[in-house]
Amino acid sequence: SLHDALPISFSVEADGTPPLSYQWFFNQTSVLNGATTNTLALSGLNYGEVGAYTVVITNTFGAITSTPASLNLNGTTVTQTNVPQNWVAANSPYFVSANIVAGNLTIQPGVSVLFNGSCSLTITGLLQAVGTSNNVITFAGDGNGNGWQGLRFVSANTNSTMSWCVVQGSTGGGIRSEERRVGKECRSRGS
Description:
By secondary structure, this protein is mainly beta. The chain is built from no helices and 20 strands. The protein has strands at residues 8-11, 21-26, 30-31, 39-42, 51-59, 62-65, 69-71, 76-78, 86-87, 94-96, 100-102, 105-107, 112-115, 120-123, 127-130, 137-141, 150-153, 161-168, 175-177, 184-189. Strands 8, 9, 10, 12, 13, 15, 16, 18 and 20 form a 9-stranded parallel sheet that branches. Strands 2, 3, 5, 6 and 7 form a 5-stranded antiparallel sheet that branches. A hairpin with a 3-residue loop joins strand 2 (21-26) and strand 3. Residues 187-191 have low confidence and may be disordered.
């Protein structure tokens, strides 16, 4: 599940001549199979489920579509055009859904970086990812079952540091580096 997300639900109230039928949609085009009551319950959320949810209510006289209800995540979305140089715990988790190349990057203790799909984070400059024993930095998949491709160091500064970091769920090698020095007090799980 997505960073310990709690189950959520959307509900509608409809008034009309019975019987009323319900069909929920994701982003107005994808039918949610089995979602045919006035309440939509979601649990074990994945990054790919962020978006707009609507319900079409029908009876013998016609159909009406609800106003979209949005499911958003607290955190920071990282894109190739939006790569902050300082990743701070207050803006965590950081969501990555495309291959990202970062020059110089500082990651504070307590930050979680969640990858959606087959993407990676490539460092071409100086990485300072220094957690603590009580406040580790986590790099992981978002829980949707698609393995992310790991951390890459390409022509990166040899003074880069990773300590008290957990790298887990990568199907692409976890940490790969042209340099021999990877980090201290780092753990790699399922990579």
